Structure formats: C-alpha cells, structure tokens
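Design job #97: recover the sequence.
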C-alpha cells in the first residue's frame, strides 16, 4: 500500500516536472531570439509585425503578417521519387505563397534571422543574430527532404493503403497542402522536449508524428 502511494507520488511529481519544463510556447525555445535585440525583449517581432508587414510574403493567400526579409533568390527544388504520387508539387519561389517559404527565409542560411522588414521600436533597433549555420541550415534545395508544398488530396490516397485518408486537416495549411508546418510548429516545443529535435507537431517516440499520416 505504502509502496503504491510512493509510486503514485513519484508519477505525479514526474508529470508536474515535465509539464513545467516543457510548457508550450515560443519563450525560451530556439525561436525566442529576443536576447539578440539591441533594445527590448520582443519575441514575436522576429517573424510577425502588427503593421507594415512584408508585402512580398502576401502574394497568393495571406501570410501571417510576416516581418522577416525573404531570401532574394528563392527557388527551392522539391522532392520526387518513383513512388511519389502527388502531381502538384512545385518548387518554392518568392512569387508563389507557401508557408514553407517563411521558414526558409531563415533556414536557407542566406538571410540572418532578425533582418526585419519593419524594425521594432525604438527606431534603429537591430538584432545581432547571424545567418544560420550547421544542421539547421537546409541550404537552397529540398530535393533530399520530405516532400512539401503539395496537396494531400484524395487523388493520392485513393488506391494507396499506406496513407491516412484524408490527411489530418490540422497538419495541413489552409489550402490542404503539406508544408514544413505539417511536422513542425514554430511556436511550440512541447511535443519534443529534446531540444535537438525541436518544434515537432507530435512526439517522435514510436514515430508517432509519422503515423498521423502514414499507415506503416
Ligand atoms: C521563428 C518564427 C516565428 C516566431 C518567433 C513566431 N511565429 Fe507565429 N508563425 C510563424 C510561421 C512560419 C507561421 C506560419 C506557419 C503556421 O501556420 O504555423 C506563423 C503563424 C502564426 C499565426 C497564424 C497561424 C496560427 O497559428 O494561428 C499567428 C496568429 C502567429 N503566428 C502568432 C505568433 C505570436 C503571437 C508570436 C509570439 C509569441 C509568434 N507567432 C512567434 C513563425 C513564427
Ligand atoms: C526569424 C528566423 C526563423 C524563422 C522564420 C524560422 N526559424 Fe527555425 N530557427 C531559427 C533559429 C535562429 C534557430 C536556431 C538555429 C541553431 O541552433 O543553429 C532555429 C531552430 C529551428 C529548429 C531546431 C533546429 C535545431 O538545430 O535544434 C527547427 C526544427 C526549426 N527552427 C524549424 C523551423 C520551421 C519549420 C520554421 C517555419 C515554420 C522555422 N523554423 C522558421 C530561426 C528561424
Ligand atoms: C515529414 C515531416 C517533416 C517535414 C515536412 C519537415 N521536417 Fe524538419 N524535421 C523533421 C524531423 C522528424 C526532424 C528531426 C530529425 C532528427 O531527429 O534528426 C526535423 C529536423 C529539422 C531541423 C533541424 C535539423 C538539424 O539537423 O539540426 C530543421 C532546421 C528543420 N527540420 C526544418 C524544416 C523546414 C524548414 C521544413 C520545410 C522546408 C521542414 N523541416 C519540413 C520532420 C519534418
Ligand atoms: C502531414 C502528413 C505527413 C506526415 C506527418 C508525414 N508524412 Fe511522409 N508523406 C506524406 C504524404 C502525403 C506523402 C506523399 C505520398 C505519395 O505521394 O505517395 C509523404 C511522403 C513520404 C515519403 C516518400 C514516399 C515516396 O513515395 O517517395 C516518405 C519516405 C515519408 N513520407 C516518410 C515519412 C516519415 C518518416 C515521417 C515522419 C518523420 C513522415 N513521412 C511524416 C504525409 C506525411
């Protein structure tokens, strides 16, 4: 009896510790770049501004009030394979809106995070963050990455018993497409407490993330 209670206390304690340490949100994650500002501690401003947002990012569809400069030469080739069924996959460019382009405006390693379209007040406020180096720099080609920027439509799941049909709406963008944000939530680290596999939409334990879409 006493043993059981001790176990229960330990289990509850564990729950408490994990929920405190891995609370959802940007604060304290690698996307919290507030410490690199010359003045102030704003955090959302690295990606969003309430006024004067990046018009180039609002080309087709509504970009979320984007505040980072886009890469100048964007044309990120995308994945293909003999068994890949989607037909509308398209290279990601500056002239067609894709939420993946927003991630790549920092993660292609050409534009430093904190290259503001509309700098935060006070005037002249800048960030000391340099361009992304190392593993988080995906470069300018997505041909060796999981496919993004295509419609997860019934036409690809029909006859394919290996895919959940239809795709989980909450993982897709407003046009029903798979994007970076299908697997990553740039605002939330909670599903992957290990900071080295950050911002996942679901845990990688048992590959749960993948099993939301793939039946394998
Ligand atoms: C490192 C970049 C980054 C930071 C920092 C960031 N966001 Fe975002 N945000 C994005 C991207 C990329 C999208 C579009 C992809 C998506 O829908 O998840 C987005 C989408 C959104 C959206 C629209 C879609 C939705 O989820 O409702 C809102 C609202 C939003 N962000 C609010 C915020 C707020 C508030 C903060 C600060 C607490 C913040 N964001 C910080 C990158 C960021
Ligand atoms: C404003 C610039 C900016 C934007 C926009 C941005 N990121 Fe990041 N992201 C960063 C920086 C800076 C880091 C830390 C890089 C490092 O540690 O080398 C980071 C880290 C990450 C990491 C963790 C990498 C690691 O090494 O642990 C992931 C995953 C990630 N970002 C995914 C995304 C995705 C997906 C999007 C779009 C939905 C996005 N980011 C948008 C700046 C950005
Ligand atoms: C199918 C799911 C999926 C999609 C789509 C996806 N990622 Fe990832 N990403 C992952 C997983 C899983 C990891 C962790 C890999 C690992 O453990 O090494 C990761 C890791 C990363 C990292 C850290 C890499 C490193 O080695 O430090 C970055 C940065 C990143 N992703 C950005 C992006 C961007 C930008 C996009 C869109 C172009 C994207 N991801 C699309 C699943 C995905
Ligand atoms: C949001 C849904 C979603 C998630 C999450 C997801 N995938 Fe996918 N994945 C797809 C779709 C849709 C395709 C395209 C399938 C096709 O056209 O045959 C695909 C394609 C692939 C392919 C290439 C198939 C081919 O025929 O070349 C592989 C491999 C793959 N995914 C593995 C993974 C792994 C591993 C994970 C987890 C890290 C993952 N996926 C997460 C939806 C997803």
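Job complete. Output follows.
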């Amino acid at each position: 009896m006493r043993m059981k209670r001790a176990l229960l206390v330990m289990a509850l304690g564990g729950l408490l510790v994990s929920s405190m340490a891995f609370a959802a949100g940007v604060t304290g994650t690698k996307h919290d770049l507030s410490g690199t500002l010359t003045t102030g501690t704003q955090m959302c401003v690295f990606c969003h501004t309430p006024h004067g947002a990046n018009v180039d990012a609002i080309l087709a569809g509504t970009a979320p009030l984007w505040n980072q400069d886009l890469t100048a030469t964007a044309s990120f080739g995308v994945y293909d394979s003999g068994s890949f069924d989607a037909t509308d996959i398209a290279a990601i460019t500056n002239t067609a809106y894709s939420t993946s382009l927003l991630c790549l405006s920092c993660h292609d390693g050409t534009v430093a995070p904190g290259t503001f379209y509309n700098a935060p007040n006070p005037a002249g406020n800048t960030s000391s963050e340099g361009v992304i180096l190392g593993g988080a720099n995906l470069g300018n080609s997505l041909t060796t990455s999981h496919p993004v920027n295509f419609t997860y439509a019934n036409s690809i799941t029909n006859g394919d018993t290996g895919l959940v049909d239809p795709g989980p709406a909450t993982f897709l963008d407003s046009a029903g497409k798979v994007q970076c944000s299908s697997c990553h939530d740039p605002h939330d680290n909670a599903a992957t407490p290990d900071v080295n596999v950050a911002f996942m939409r679901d845990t990688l334990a048992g590959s749960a993330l993948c099993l939301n879409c793939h039946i394998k």
